[in-house]
Design goal:
The complex is a heterodimer of chains A (117) and B (223). Chain A is of the alpha+beta class and 117 residues long. Chain A contains 2 helices and 6 strands. The chains are: A alpha+beta (117), B alpha/beta (223).
Chain lengths: 117, 223
């Protein structure tokens, strides 16, 4: 349940970028959330909707990009996505695998609106 | 009115990762091994620290940073053992973050060997936050059940060592230590596993030896 503190970090990123680009509003936020990131997308959405009130992102929509877990095998070099919590190589069964994706908590892109021409 | 899309690609945990890296560097330059203890509430983190305090006394010096939502209770228990301890009360937050540790760091005496961080009791959120530790230990107590590793994979994946606690209760519970260990190893091969009863002191010397070896490695890498 640390979704609210993560959303606070999202707003730091939004404010910094809006200022840098002279924008008046943020209209959309795209977040990459890995399946192994330890956060629940639904809770992130509720936290975002609560936090945005009275901010420059008041009318913004949060889009969450779900990032599946991908493993790279240290033995056969194969790389594949894993749906379940089986942390072994899909090709050779080795357990010497490295998680190459699925831990993301990243602000991918944002949409800004600027007043005037 | 114009609209534009900006590619940001900013990691939300970047600030925490930077703070953790600074702590790791600071402690390593002082020759201090930092150990982050992570587990559910009531799994025996504080009792294990009390037992370690007794076992390490006279050979190694330790200090403890306690994380809890409320109260100084855990820090008081550690201080009663003659060990310096600082309590961080998060006031509701479910985990410790690196900057909270950073604020306490200046109080930590230079002449210690081990700095233990007892995280807020929670097997989920603390797993996402690097605190600048050298070793992350997950505790799993026998009353919790041997099916927990697969239910909370992130905690076990991020750990260096698993400590099965309350081994003295195993005869009374449907807890199979071999099953818990096998499940944890299937998630994190190479995980070091210790079985302890902190109340009786069983297995605590083996765990202390593991910490001492890691301390030696840290100091020889620095030399």
């Amino acid at each position: 349940m640390h979704e609210l503190s993560l959303i606070a970090s999202v707003f730091d990123v939004l404010e910094e970028n809006a200022r840098a680009h002279g924008a008046a509003r943020v209209t959309k936020v795209v977040l990459q959330v890995g399946r192994m990131s330890g956060v629940v997308p639904d809770l992130l959405e509720s936290a975002f909707d609560t936090y945005k009130q009275g901010t420059l992102a008041e009318g913004a929509r949060l889009e969450i990009v779900d990032v599946p877990v991908r493993l790279r095998c240290s033995d056969c070099g194969g790389e594949a996505a894993r749906e379940d919590s089986d942390f072994s190589c899909a090709a050779c069964g080795s357990r010497r695998v490295e998680i190459v994706a699925g831990r993301e908590l990243v602000v991918e892109r944002i949409e800004l609106e600027t007043d005037g021409a | 009115m114009t609209t534009k899309t900006i590619s940001v690609l900013q990691d939300l945990l970047a600030t925490n990762k930077q703070a953790a890296a600074a702590i790791r560097q600071e402690l390593s330059s002082r020759g201090i091994l930092c150990i982050n203890l992570l587990s559910s509430p009531g799994s025996g983190k504080t009792t294990l620290l009390e037992s370690l305090a007794d076992r390490l006394r006279g050979r190694y010096r330790m200090a403890v940073i306690e994380g809890d939502i409320e109260t100084e209770r855990d820090a008081e228990r550690i201080r009663a053992k003659g060990i310096p301890a600082w309590q961080i009360t998060t006031g509701g937050a479910c985990h410790l973050e690196a900057r909270m540790i950073g604020r306490v760091l200046s109080h930590v005496p230079a002449a210690i060997d081990f700095l233990f961080i007892e995280n807020v009791g929670n097997l989920v959120c603390p797993a996402s936050y690097d605190l600048g530790e050298d070793l992350r230990c997950v505790l799993l107590s026998s009353p919790e059940g041997d099916d927990k590793p697969a239910k909370y994979p992130q905690a076990f994946l991020s750990a260096d060592c698993l400590i099965l606690t309350k081994a003295d209760l195993v005869p009374y519970l449907p807890f199979d230590p071999a099953k818990a260990a096998a499940e944890a190893l299937s998630i994190k091969p190479g995980l070091r596993i210790f079985t302890v009863s902190a109340l009786r002191g069983d297995g605590v010397d083996e765990l202390a030896a593991y910490f001492a070896e890691a301390l030696e490695r840290l100091r020889s890498a620095r030399a």
